[in-house]
Amino acid sequence: MSDTFTALVLEEVDGEQRAALKDLTTADLPADDVTVRVAYSTLNYKDGLAITGKAKIARRLPMVCGIDLAGTVEESNSPAYKTGDAVVVTGWGLSESHWGGYAQKQRVKSDWLVPVPKEFSLKQAMAIGTAGFTSMLCVMGLEHMGVKPGEHEVVVTGAAGGVGSVAVALLAKLGYKVAAATGRPELRDYLVSLGATSIVERTALAQPSGRPLDAERWAGGVDTVGGEVLASVLRGIRYGGAVAACGLAGGANLPTSVYPFILRGVSLIGIDSVMCPKPARLEAWQRLARDLPLAKLEAMTVVEPLSQVPQLAEDIIKGQVRGRVVIDVNA
Ligand SMILES: NC(=O)c1ccc[n+]([C@@H]2O[C@H](COP(=O)([O-])OP(=O)(O)OC[C@H]3O[C@@H](n4cnc5c(N)ncnc54)[C@H](OP(=O)(O)O)[C@@H]3O)[C@@H](O)[C@H]2O)c1
Prior knowledge:
alpha/beta; Rossmann fold
């Protein structure tokens, strides 16, 4: 690769934010200690928010978007990494305060890097990406609260999305019965192929309720949606169960009451992948290597070129993307 490379850059043009492919050089990159030759990034809901401008994700412009990346180390000033090492970065402010993965080359802090587990190619590492890593954190959170595989289902909301699809596949592999809650019931076969034992229509969960509690239904939940859906999930969690909340695809409010917590001992676990400390990151990647069925990962993933990202950003915000989208930054 010559010193010039391509990146998707968010800039302000005529008072509006616009993302466009630009040529950059190594001299343009941030002054951090590891330069990565990027192979893949991915499309996440937050990338959609950043590129469409639906939320202010980039805190300064110009910003190279993309909240994650996988590639090989090109140059390292850190003793922890050497040229040729396969690495992945998720979060840590990529696309917010630091240039991100929608670029053929990026420079990042060595502390942010995680070695790609030997079980995964760079493409598979990004098929997992931020979404899949977050799904694993959710599963670990439920395990930590004592939610075990058993007779009762764990519900996953936004199940056909990126976090949701990986969560369904992980939970099913670990022996949980999984209720997949979706606004796209036409994707029933897809969700069943990932391991869902039942399908719940989103509309059944999206209604406000006058009741403080519903019948005890689920042992636990992974919620990517927030709003009325999360409130509804909380009302239906069985005694002593837990919900890992990681998303807001349906809204940032939480119109709930304290009754699930004080009458059923339900726990609400907050999941953040961006600033997640390194030990938990390493554990999550090890667990993904052990527990995520690669055939299912493959079945939920498509690969698209960097030039498609602006259109894909619109699609993901409209809830029209299924599973995971890997972005081939060199295509
Ligand atoms: N906490 C963290 O660190 C972290 C990390 C990654 C992602 N997230 C958050 O997790 C959520 C999912 O991310 P993702 O990358 O998996 O996005 P995604 O692929 O777009 O999945 C979101 C899913 O939510 C459902 N949905 C979309 N719009 C909705 C609406 N208006 N009301 C109810 N449900 C709706 C859809 O699933 P169905 O079609 O199946 O209904 C959609 O596929 C996002 O809010 C994202 O910001 C948080």
